[in-house]
Amino acid sequence: MKGQVIYLDYAATTPVDGETIAAALPYYGSTFYNPASTHMLGQIASSAVEFGRRACERAINADRGTVYFTSGGTEAINQAMKCVDIEAGSKVAVSAIEHDAVKACAEYLSRRGHEVVTVMPTEDGIITPEALEKAIEGGAALVCVMTVNNIVGTIQPIRELAQVAHRHGALFFTDAVQAVNSIELDVKDSDVDMLCVSGHKFYALKGSGFLYVKKGVKINALLDGGRQEYGLRAGTVDVPAVMALADGITRAQNCVDEYNAHAKILREAFLSALDCGKQIEIGPHVDDILSVAFDGVDGGRLAVALSVAGVCCSVGSACSAGSATPPDTLVAMKHGGAASSVRFSFGKPTTKAQAEAAAKIVNDTVKNLLAAKV
Ligand code: PLP
C-alpha cells in the first residue's frame, strides 16, 4: 500500500470494465461502419446500434424506441430540459441539489420566460413530496429531481415525486447519472417521463450516455443536422460507445445487490478507521458516496493536501472543480460544515485495505493541517 495512490473519486468517473471494452472493440475495427449508411455493411453497424438500444431499454424497463443516445449526461440533460415541448412561460420546478448541468438549463429556461422555482431539500438532503407539492401549487409544466445526489448520495423518493408532478399536470425528469450502479432503475414503476444516464459513471466510456423519453412525451432535437436517432439527435452515432453503454448498464443493473454490499463494506471500513471529521447526517442514501465535514479545515485545502499525500477525492462535483465555493447541495441542506467538507466515493476496484489506509492518511493530513494553523 505504501506509496500507492488511492483513488476515492469514482463519482467523478470510473475505469472501463474489461468486458465492456471487449464489447466495444469490434466496432472500432472489423465492424467500423457508419450505421446511417444504407449499404449492407452500414446495416451491420445499424443492427448493432438497435441491439444496444434494446439492451439499454431493457435495463431500465423501458418500451422499445424510447432511448436516444447522446454524448453523455450533460447533453441529455440539456435536451430534456430545453427541448421538451412545454408551454411558453410555464412553471418549471428544479430541486436545489441538482448537478450544475440541470441548474444551468433551469437558468436558460428562466431567461426564456419560464417561471423557475427551486425546491429545497430537508436538512438531511431529501426532496420531499410535500416540498414539491408546495412549490408547484397551482400547476407546473416540468419538474426536475435527480435520483441519487452526487455530493452526499441521498436517494430521492422519485416515484412519489413523479406522482406529485403528474397530479399537478407536470412532466417529471430525473437525472439518474449517479444511480446506475446502486439503484434498480424501472421507468415504468417510478413513472418518470424522462431519465438520463452517463456511461463513464458505470464503467463504460466517457462521452456516452442516453436520454429516455416516455412514449407520447413530445421532445425536439437539441442538435440540428442529420436524421439520426429518429430525428432527435443529429450526428453519426458512436457505435462502440453504444455497445459499451449497453454492456455497462446491463452489467450494472444485474449486479446492484453485489455492488451495494461491497460499497457498504468499504464505507464502514473507511468510517471506522477515520478518527476525525464528521460524516454529514443524511436520509436514505447509497453507500458509495460519502461527504465528511472536517471542523476547522478548509475542504478545498484538505483535498489538495490529500492528493499530495496519495488520496484522490474531491470537493463537490468534478464539473464544478476549481470553484472556491462549497458544494451547493450542502449549502441547500444548510449544513454548517459545507466549506470544510470533502467527498469520498468508492468503486468496484476499491479494496477494504485501501479504504482503511485512505482513512488513516486523512487522519494524519487533517492533524497536520490543524497543527499548521496554530
Ligand atoms: N449529473 C450528475 C448527477 C453528475 O454527477 C454528472 C457528472 O458528474 C453529470 C450529470 C454530467 O454527466 P456527464 O459527465 O456525462 O456530462
Describe this structure in words.
This protein has 374 residues and is α/β, with parallel strands linked by helices. The chain contains twelve helices and twelve strands. It has helices at residues 18-24, 40-59, 73-83, 100-111, 129-135, 158-167, 187-190, 239-254, 256-273, 299-309, 328-332, 352-373, and strands at residues 6-7, 67-70, 91-95, 115-119, 142-144, 171-175, 194-198, 209-213, 278-279, 289-293, 311-312, 341-345. A seven-stranded mixed sheet has the order 2-8-7-6-5-3-4, with helices on both faces. Bound molecules: pyridoxal-5'-phosphate. Pyridoxal-5'-phosphate binds at residues 72-74, 99, 101, 146, 150, 175, 177-178, 198, 209, 317-319.
Secondary structure layout plus pairing:
Blueprint: E1 6-7, H1 18-24, H2 40-59, E2 67-70, H3 73-83, E3 91-95, H4 100-111, E4 115-119, H5 129-135, E5 142-144, H6 158-167, E6 171-175, H7 187-190, E7 194-198, E8 209-213, H8 239-254, H9 256-273, E9 278-279, E10 289-293, H10 299-309, E11 311-312, H11 328-332, E12 341-345, H12 352-373
Parallel strand pairs: 1-11, 3-4, 3-5, 5-6, 6-7
Antiparallel strand pairs: 2-8, 7-8, 9-10, 10-12
Give a quick precis of the structure.
The chain has helices at residues 18-24, 40-59, 73-83, 100-111, 129-135, 158-167, 187-190, 239-254, 256-273, 299-309, 328-332, 352-373, and strands spanning 6-7, 67-70, 91-95, 115-119, 142-144, 171-175, 194-198, 209-213, 278-279, 289-293, 311-312, 341-345.
